[in-house]
Design goal:
single chain, Rossmann fold, Elongation Factor Tu (Ef-tu), domain 3, 2 domains, 6-stranded parallel sheet, 9 helices, 14 strands, elongated
Length: about 300
């Protein structure tokens, strides 16, 4: 997938099928729109294109970082993603001016949006206005109903709340994949190695982090998948944390390579236990062995 920053950098693409939205989390509702855009573009030998925004237009806390979002969009087969800087200048654009700018740069064949999509200054534009412009500029407009789970609409805001409450299985069902975070491996103080379990210390990329505890995880490094256990918490056994500090450490099974600076995507499969303070390093090491055995029993189910 090619990524372009800014509408004005677009140079003609054949028959663009454009999906517009923040798509934070790329959840079940987003996937419907994006997958249909890909399908349509392929059927007309066109270009599947996503227009997304950074930072969030409503200044909401993001579920996933931009880099994480782009990875997930790419996995759905999108050809091109355009990231629009949602700054004061862009926020001041009238709804009509935005559509004029969009069409002058993209010349879309089709435009795909959720029925609740709003755009333009003070969110004055909606699908009704888009429908008028579709007739003026002769592009096809397709709107998608909000996807619900039971009586509740699926939204990034709701999924974010579930993750923070530790309801990862429920959040995963709405995402159609396990809850995950993307982060870079940073240098730590080698506490895990001293215990006999070398860990990768993760610096997350503006992600919503699950609650403290020990989890069975799947780790994605480039295109390679590994099993492991992840501890999120304050390292109470070592009494070395700052107030409200949260460390993310992953022990990857059968892995012992230098990956400092590399990005890891960590999929949380199931929580094994709460974080706790141990009387000694030996007691902690013995518990880690038990955690590994517990995780290994879970992996066949995933």
């Amino acid at each position: 997938m090619k990524v372009i920053y800014g509408l004005r950098r677009i140079r003609g693409y054949p028959r663009p099928v454009v999906a517009i939205g923040v798509f934070d989390g790329v959840h079940q509702g987003h996937r419907v729109i994006l997958e249909q855009a890909v399908k349509k573009a392929r059927s007309i030998r066109g270009t599947s294109m996503v227009l997304t925004f950074w930072p969030h237009p409503q200044k909401e806390e993001l579920l996933y970082s931009l880099r994480h979002r782009l990875r997930l969009i790419q996995e759905l087969g999108i050809d091109l993603c355009v990231v629009i800087n949602f700054n004061k200048e862009f926020a001041a654009l009238k709804a009509g001016d935005f559509i004029k700018l969009l069409f002058s740069r993209v010349r879309m064949h089709s435009l795909y949006v959720g029925e609740n999509f709003r755009f333009g200054r003070k969110a004055e534009g909606d699908y009704r206005l888009l429908n008028k412009f579709s007739k003026l500029y002769n592009f096809k407009l397709k709107t998608f109903k909000v996807v619900s789970c039971g009586a509740r609409a699926i939204s990034s805001t709701y999924i974010r709340k579930l993750i923070k409450k530790g309801k990862l299985q429920q959040a995963g069902r709405l995402l159609l994949r396990p809850v995950s975070i993307l982060g870079s491996v940073k240098r730590g103080n080698l506490l895990g190695r001293k215990l006999g379990f070398p860990t990768a210390n993760i610096d997350p990329h503006h992600e919503v982090i699950p609650p403290a505890g020990v989890y069975a995880v799947r780790v994605i490094l480039r295109k390679n998948k590994f099993n492991g256990v992840c501890n999120i918490g304050s390292r109470p056994t070592f009494n070395c944390s700052l107030p409200d500090a949260r460390y993310i450490e992953v022990f990857i099974f059968g892995f012992n390579k230098n990956i400092y600076g590399k990005d890891l995507e960590i999929h949380f499969l199931k929580k094994i236990r709460q974080e706790q303070k141990f009387d000694s390093c030996r007691d902690l090491a013995n518990q880690i062995k038990k955690d590994i055995l517990a995780a290994e029993k879970l992996f066949p189910a995933f």
